[in-house]
Amino acid sequence: MFKAKSIFFASIASLLLGTATTSAMAADTTTTEAGAYAGLNIAAQAKYDHDCLGSVSCDNKASSSGKIYAGYMGVPSLFEGVNVSQGVELMYYKVGSATETFSSLRRSTSTKGLGASYVLQANFNDFSVNGRLGVAYTDDKSSSTNYLLLGGAVESDQHRFAPLVGVGARYSLTKNISLNADYDRLQSDHTGAVNMFSLGVGYKF
Question: Strand 77-79 and strand 57-59: pairing?
Fold first, then answer.
């Protein structure tokens, strides 16, 4: 299932990159400058990597999820005819709960974290694409209820460092405001990972 999703998101990234390249070929210069930025994204879809094996019902789509982030992008340099910027980004994310139900067990999981990433961005006038690689400090929570045992739910709260990977696209509406689309793969101790696709608005200072 993850392989199919990876191919899907890779196809989207290729399409966006192709559009951006076409736009870049039609323009002579790029006006991107160094500066700080921040943004807010709401998840259009966030799914846990539940395998669902042996479950009576499996809801791997997370409830309300999203992220806020801030970063700094350096002055772009020309590489193979493309203006490329490098930067750093901090991100706080929260992924809502999803539930698996077995014959005698019901388990709910959620995760949140604070991440820091290196960002590599290709700029094409009003359009840009980026890749992000970093590390996150995660807070993974799980609540399990065994119907055959008394005592109520058993809760688990685990903290750890985990890799953080993402890709994104930006379209500038004005000099300061942009529309953003991001894909983030967020690690979760209880399910392996969460795949989150989010949309939002960014502001460049």
Answer: unpaired
pLDDT digits (tens, 9 = 90+) for 33-76: 789 999 999 999 998 886 666 556 667 788 889 999 999 999 98
For tokens 């006006």, the residue is 31
- Closest to 35 (Cα-Cα) out of 83, 94, 78, 76: 76
Structure tokens at 131: 């890749």
H-helix or E-strand spanning residue 8: helix 2-25
Whether residue 11 has pLDDT greater than 60: no
Residues whose CB falls within 8 Å of the CB of residue 58, separated by 6 or more in sequence, listed in order: 50, 52, 100, 101
Sign of CA dihedral 17, 188, 109, 69: negative
- Joined together, the tokens standing for residue 97 give 């709960």
pTM: 0.75
Question: Coil, strand or helix: which one is 54?
Answer: coil
- CA atoms of 90 and 115, how far apart (whole Å): 6
